[in-house]
Amino acid sequence: MTSRVEVPCPKCRRPIHAQPPSAACPSCGTRVEVRASPGATGGVASCLACNCPDLYRQKDFPRKVGLAIVGAAALLVFVAVASRLPFWAIYVPLLGAAALDALLYLALPEVVVCYRCRAKHRGFAAEPRPEPFDPAVHDRYAFGRSTE
Ligand SMILES: [Zn+2]
Ligand SMILES: [Zn+2]
To answer: Which of 8, 41, 53, 58 makes a 20 to 30 Å CA pair with 118?
Structure first.
């Protein structure tokens, strides 16, 4: 798997799929710098776009897929209700959707996200592995560091 960095454009916030040493925003042309080396282990110890050491990991879950599963389940529930199936029948699509969600969740790769610039790092080595999303750290970046 090739490693990639997706940096939100500092100007227009569109995602830029960056290759080191730099990449241009496809929509406004703003250039972003990206470091090439992910560090000794091949993992991401600090953000490759802004050097920020605070990163979190999350599942790389495509929102469209999640919405499609929910939409299909809702449709099946509607069909079950409309065709006067016994009441338990409406739980079948709901349980199915939940099971599919869980399966997908296990199978999906993790993406490492920078708290500061929101750059997404995909396909890097698993170590060092950042902590899951921490709202306290997020707030520190969102509302400034003066609270420390
Ligand atoms: Zn842009
Ligand atoms: Zn960053």
So the answer is: 41
